[in-house]
Write a structure and sequence with these properties.
mainly alpha, 3 helices, 74% helix, 0% strand
Amino acid sequence: MTDENHQKRGEQAAEGLREATAKEEAKNETKSGHDLAKGADRFEERSKSSDGRSAKEKQKG
């Protein structure tokens, strides 16, 4: 298989993953009744642990 074929297959796989992720996100947003956080807000939301403190808050001491 040539490098070009590998690249095309990789691009197709990535597109399939993006589509599956978008569908899953839409399903979760519908289920929760609100949009999921995006970008930096999403990172901050996901970085909070069970105690509700972000990594940044924990580093402050």
